[in-house]
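User: What would this chain look like folded?
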Amino acid sequence: MKGFIAVFAAVLTAFTAYVALDTFVIPRSMAPAVSEAVVSMEETSAAKVNETESTTDETTQVQTETETETEAYDGADIEIETYYEYDTVIYVADVEFSSITELKAAFAEDTYGRNITAVTSNIAYDNGAILAINGDFYGSQERGYVIRNGILYRSEAKSDQEDLVIYVDGTFEIINEDDISAEELLDAGAWHVLSFGPGIVSGGEIAVTEDEEVGKAKASNPRTAIGFIDETHIVMVVSDGRTDESEGLSLYQLAEFMQSLGVSEAYNLDGGGSSTMYYDGEIVNNPTSSGNSIKERAISDILYF
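Assistant: Here's the prediction, encoded as structure tokens.
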């Protein structure tokens, strides 16, 4: 009997170790749930399924612009501005374009799957990006919708998960996965669905509380966010943090800042060591996980022009 128990314990330990490796370490490519894009430029997002109501005291923030760089590229006009707010350096890419389909997504190693990662700058370079930010790090989760470039890759819902839907008509919407399926979003014209969150501005109003945070994240962090101004105009925002030069932002501070840029909808993407902005062949910000070294974290996906 003792021998059987020992063998059983060894098998159980080995199985547990394999599951952990398979979940967090072993790279594995996966097939998309729908293998072809089903949206086109003529389709519009007919289903608007979830409106978030929130109230907040009006707060005026003084913005200190320290640097502005503007370039025009095929399909997009990009202006990079640097701000210093809340003892934090914040980088804003203000982008005007002819079609939201100019905003593309890319996977590490051009492969959708588990534990397949690369740094933002390498994914951007491989895809010929002019401007890129890190995405939602879909590969760190087993659930949560993944729609990229009009293709449905993952349809398994995550309970009480707020997503950002970017429709092919250029509009943004923050939805809850409990309220609608990934297939319905695709049929409604979803170009991208990002599953991180939360939504931080909705209908022009701040949608988070002052003490709200992402899971067990620190109160002040490097952050990445994307915001909607109109169907041909968005902002992509990355802040530094965790260093003596740049403290980092709380979710509420990020929401205040995004609101000050004039967005009606804004969404928090993967942050911390993942937060990276790439522009014209260079890393714009100072990515760090601990503050002790400045380097990019390997991630699973980016958004780019």
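The first strand starts at residue 28 and ends at 29. If you want, I can go into more detail on any region.
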